[in-house]
Write a structure and sequence with these properties.
globular
Amino acid sequence: MNTIVTSISSKHRLPDLDKVFDAVGAWVLAIVWISPLLFATWAALQPSGTALGMDFSNPLTFENFVYVWNAVPWVGYFTNTVVLVTLILAGQLVLCTLAGFAFARFEFKGRDTVFILVLLQLFILPEVLIVENYAIVSKLGLFDTALGIGLPYMASAFGIFLLRQAFKSVPIELEEAARIEGCSWMGVLWKVYVPAAKPVYLAYALVSIATHWNNFLWPLIVTNSPDTRPLTVGLSLFGAPETGVDISVISAATLMTILPLLMAFLIFQRQFIQAFLRAGIR
């Protein structure tokens, strides 16, 4: 009899409130996050100039995408953006790998102090250094070039910190075995540490590409010609007050700009999440 009562009461037991709140909170945050994207998609498919009317009876159209594609040299902007983010990522991977390896495995005087100074970069907004960066880029003769846009971002404090944590998690026995086999320090780095940190490299690459794909202010300041403008600067032309602001056209241009990032995240989302879970702070 007690067994029957226990089974009946277990069926009618109230759900765990913590799990309910977690689920509700996750759904609320997901809806808040995706709602601008949903509105942009809906607005981009509306006839020009009708998006703010919120008339759901309007027929869907792809004319805004065709107009955006023909209005600006979209292929050129896309190529400039790909070249820019690739250049920045390549510089970051080289510099951050060497710096992260040095901070993780070498003992030298003032190492912790220098590392703290590097981390202080995380507290400085890039906009604060625009004047100094502009002066340096101009003196180097790199104004209105892809290298001039990417140069201030190649030494990333976040990348150094992330790779340092990844390298510190590698067992020291692997390094010692490689040294016994005759590997130099660069050989140990290339054959032991870099392969062990591949998930972290992938996650960092996605973060770096997304960040600099969406960067706007610095490329706007340091470029003058369509030959070097990235997508974000080209996108701003559709929102210029002198040409009129059309939400449908801007939404279509926005979707065309962020589509490669969305596809990359959907493809690599599992590796992206697992890499940060593994990296952590050790």
